[in-house]
Amino acid sequence: MELSLARKSAWERLSAGEREQVFAFAEGYRRFLSEVKTEREAVRFALERAGQRGYVPLEQLPPGGIKPGTKFYLCWRDKVLLLGIGGEQGVQEGFRLIGAHIDSPRLDLKPRPLYEKGGLGLLKTHYYGGIKKYQWMTIPLALHGVVMLRGGRKIEIVIGEGENEPGFTITDLPPHLAREQMEKKVNEAFTGEDLNALLGHIPGAEEKEDKDNRVKLSLLKLLNERYGVVEEDLIAAELQLVPAGPARDIGLDSSFIGGYGQDDRVCAYTALEALLDLPFPPPQMSLVLLIDKEEIGSTGDTGAFSRFLEYALAEIAHRAQLGEFLNISRILSRSKALSADVTGGFDPTFENVYDRQNALFLGHGVVLHKYSGRGGKYEANDASAEYMGWLRDIFNNYGVIWQSGEMGRIEAGGGGTIAKFLAFYGLEVADCGPALLSMHSPLEISSKVDVYMAYKGYKAFFQA
Question: What is the pTM of this model?
């Protein structure tokens, strides 16, 4: 028996042949990360993958239609998705759920975004979630989203991802003129109102009567010709500026993945693949919940604080012919969950914000958190010793390489997850996901071995 808990790189602990599996799995994840940059795109990707594996809409199942191995899904407003597979024990014995959020920090266009100033056409934005504003300036950006045209027709827009497509950017001062800017505090030097994206500057020749808006009107004309959009339609739109271009390998040994949106689409992808790869019906019904709005507090009708999970469980109970609320409550009390979310990894450049004894290291496996929150565990779920012990034994028995600790020093900051919202329903829940570097930046960094161990851990959670 080992008395002490040693730290060791997961790369050194991989079993024979696992290194190849790590790199092969990372290839699929990197492609996903390159293609999926919004919550709507994540739901569409998951639906396509699930459809290929025989998953059907929950609404199509008759009463009594959920049996061991039955595969189903429930999509909610194109931004939330619940995927499930019936277990051997039946719905009345509870379920196992992995919840991950599919929204990420970004720049949303304001309702009236387009304006002209100094001969330039610009887009006003409103940042979404916690960002460092200066990180979003002077980088290539792409526009993703949907617009509702008059009459109810919806169009999807993606501009700036193709090699020969025009993109967007947010400008910054040259250092020659930035003396005053550089003397300010960071949050004063870069404000939300400064995040205005460059859209164009060719004036329209026929708009001579409106000299102050010739560029704006010319750009509106382009939008109308290409997409049928008029300015009023932008009020009924969800358009997001996100970092342009594909995710890529990072490091001379290609051991990292760098890309936008890994918080938290890395957990969404690994949880989805874990569910789809189950070789047989699991002991309990297994569910993957892909949820929106975590980055702004899980509020709104597509966030974890909404009543979507209640609605979904009522639909499941109906199909299982367990319609009474008391039975649903009993199902919840017998259920277990993982709040699949990332955490901050130790960065030696800024080591003063970490408690080295409890720091989390990239390449040391998936992280199993007892609690998150901030300060005195405020706004955190705090998993019980019994549940943490149960999870630890599962991971050890299935060869999952894992680590535990805290994101940083107690007074340095902190963050929350959807764990507390799942716990509201009486589920036992703990946080579990990979550690990242540069979290919430346009280029987040994950370790390929940690991504693979998240997949392996989620699969073990369903199988055990």
Answer: 0.96
